[in-house]
Amino acid sequence: MGAVTFSLMTRQQVLGELKATGSTDTDVLYAAKEQLLGQVRPLKVFGIWAYVTGGLATLLILTAIFGIPLLIFGWWVRRRAAQNIEIIETTFAEHLKSLTPLASAV
Question: From 29, 55, 99, 104, which residue has the greatest number of CB atoms within 10 Å?
Fold first, then answer.
């Protein structure tokens, strides 16, 4: 399993990871996709943690100076995770569609 990444994934990165498997087997490609998603899914949980912690800190007026930025950070992390998941899913679907003519020709 790879490291959790905050960076925004690109279509080329995801496609490169899928092609790096060297296989057209859907099970192998699905495993590669799940490995990529495994790098992103913890960000969703981290974003929820930041929401809850920031919300609780904001309720205590004295710690609102920490809570509000934490809420904003949680929103940013969850948005980034959602964007990465969308890129991974759409690129995976497009890659499978591009392989379909190859599978039927064989």
Answer: 29
Phi-psi domain of 22 (left: phi exceeds 0; alpha: psi -120 through 50; beta: other): left
Q: What span, in angstroms and rounded, lies between the C-alpha atoms of 71 and 52?
A: 8
Residue 25 DSSP code: -
- Residue 101 vs residues 4, 24, 85, 89, 98: alpha-carbon distances, Å: 34, 11, 26, 20, 7
Distances (CA, A) of 14 to 81, 87, 104: 14, 8, 24
Q: Answer for the pair 89, 14: CB distance below 8 angstroms, yes or no.
A: no
Q: Could you give phi then psi for residue 100, rounded to 5 degrees? A: -60, -45
Secondary structure tally for the chain: helices H, strands E: 3, 0
Which tens digit of pLDDT belongs to each residue from 20-58? 988 888 899 999 999 999 989 899 999 999 999 999 999
Asked whether the whole model's pTM tops 0.90, one would answer no
